[in-house]
Structures are given as C-alpha cells and as structure tokens.
Amino acid sequence: MHTKKVALIGSTQYEEKMKLYTWSHRNDGWDIKLPFFDSTVGVNTSGLTMMERNLELIKWADEIHIFWDGRSIGTWGDFCMAFALKKKVQILFLEPKSCRNIIKQYEEKCLEAKTKISGG
User: Fold this and answer.
1) pTM of the model
2) Which residue has better confidence, 78 or 69?
3) Which CATH number among 3.30.70, 1.10.150, 3.40.50, 1.10.10 corresponds to the domain 4-113?
C-alpha cells in the first residue's frame, strides 16, 4: 500500500495550526511534511533558498494542503509551483482575500477529476 505523501504550504502565522494538523493525521498512514518557514530555516536564509526547498517538497508530494492568509507572496509562489506541476491541492484554511477564487477553482477542478492529477 502506498503511503500518501502530503506537503503543507502556508503562511508562517499558521505554523502551529499546520503542526496540529500533522499531529492529528499521524495515525492515518500519511507522510506529512511542513514547509520551510523563516523560523525553521534561519534569519540569514534567502527567500530563493526557501523557494527552492519548498519546490523540492512540492515535487516529492502526492498532494499539497494549503493554509493561506491571502497575503503571503511565498505561499502564493508555492501554490503556483504546485499548479505548474499539476499537483492535487486541498485547501485547509483560506482567508477570503486576493487570489482566493483561483485557488478555490483549482481545488474544485481537482475534486471533479476524482483521480490523481499526474505530477511532473
């Protein structure tokens, strides 16, 4: 049986919510990984390095689960990578702000397909 690999992406302010989500699914047979935050990679780590690390995380995953405040450009960039790689996306928390409809429409498209969208 294949273990579902889930990458979480999201705004730094939701780091604790993401950790709780990871913990709550520990017995579901999922392999869940958190994104690289400013707080986890260090103050001197460049934004480019964080994006490269999150890109590898997104490539690794079967599904991308999102916690987004609607403002974080880093999370938007991560979503765009998931979109480009045709990864299945599930929204766990989304503020009703900018870019909301695009992500919501993409999630609905993934759900309508009812099959895994093949990754890159």
Assistant:
1) 0.76
2) 78
3) 3.40.50
